[in-house]
Design goal:
Helices cover about 55% and strands about 15% of the residues. By secondary structure, it is of the alpha+beta class. A 3-stranded antiparallel sheet has the order 1-3-2. The protein is elongated.
Length: about 70
């Protein structure tokens, strides 16, 4: 795995337009992508983030409604 294949909490927060604290809360509640600790930092595999986003998109009622039209 290369550094480009992981995302930090700050990078994920910027991507989702959330605060790092919101990402931490999502992770603790099991609502965000799975991450792992390296020392004090939490890193998220890019593949996990992409899969999580795809699942969220597939289950979004607005997207499902738009696909029916």
């Amino acid at each position: 795995m290369t550094p480009q294949q992981v995302v930090t909490t700050r990078e994920l927060a910027a991507l989702l337009r959330k605060t790092p604290a919101a990402i931490k809360t999502m992770r603790h509640r099991g609502k965000g992508p799975r991450g792992f600790r390296v020392g004090r930092k939490v890193l998220y595999p890019a593949a996990e983030v992409e899969a999580w986003l795809a699942a969220r998109l597939a289950n979004d009622p607005l997207v499902q409604r738009a696909n029916r039209a």
